[in-house]
Amino acid sequence: MNLGSTEITLIHASMQFSDTPMQHKHDADAVFQLAWEQGAWFVDGTEAGSAEGNHDLRDALRLAAGKHGFHIYNNKYGDWVAGNNKYLEGYIQNYGGPYIPASTGLTAGQGGYGPRGITSLGGFDKARKLGRITMGVCHYLTRKSITAGEISNIPLVNGIADFGKKFGGGSKIVFLGADTNMRDDELDVFFGRPFTTAADELDFHPKTLGTDSRHGSAVDIIASYDYDSRVTCESWRVLDDSRLKLYTDHFVTEAVYSVRNLK
């Protein structure tokens, strides 16, 4: 990083809605403790449950975020993003979609799925060097859901492209975290749309989903918008259970980006 740039740390944490309230609380506290220790600007994740139904993880995330100095936006469909009040102000919450509506007539065991869209939180850096910064998060359909619902992730990926165009470019920059349910080491999870994962940018693809050998590297991603020419990925790491013990079946991921300051 040179003197004309700023380092931004981002954390993505895919949660597991079926865990117990005790496990949810543990994971929420652990993720935000890590985000605070690392000085993360944003932390995002998935599967926090709905506002009406299974909401104990939503509650735990809200409490953990506040305790560690983060402003959190919990979308009603389960995705969430939090910004660090130490670095950011003037927050703007947004939800794009749903680009894929919820399945009908399918149970969870049959591959049923909820609505799929993009939850985002934007803010201005307090030093006013970077412009508006937006972090989005989304959750791709699994292969089982795609087969059961006779649908694809393409509508969501098209929404990601629109998201980048709306919130990135020029004086604005945008990032995206996601559980893609696809192997980022084997294919482009954006299918040609103008985002690049940290793992692809650095050509480093450690495993992010448990210990099951059937699941490959970087199922979970953090990505930058290709038209944000001020942004360069500096590092990408996956914190497995030996580094951060969580009950969720995914590992926490962390990317550090260098952003050239506005002139």
What does this structure look like?
It is a single chain. The chain has 263 residues and is an alpha+beta fold. The protein is built from five helices and twelve strands. It has a six-stranded mixed β-sheet with strand order 3-4-2-1-12-11. Strands 5-6-7-8-10-9 form a six-stranded mixed β-sheet.
CATH topology: Deoxyribonuclease I, Chain A
Strand content: 25-35%
Write down the Rg: 17 Å
Sheet/helix structural class? alpha+beta
| Helical amount | 10-25%
> Briefly, what CATH class?
Alpha Beta
Number of domains: 1
Mean pLDDT: 93
Query: What is the fourth-level CATH superfamily?
Result: Endonuclease/exonuclease/phosphatase
Q: Total strand count, please?
A: 12
Which architecture does the CATH hierarchy give at level 2?
4-Layer Sandwich
Give the uncertain stretches in residue-range form. Answer: none
Distance between the termini: 16 Å
Shape, principal axes of CA atoms: globular
The ordered string of helix (H) and strand (E) elements is: EHEHEEEEEHHEEHEEE
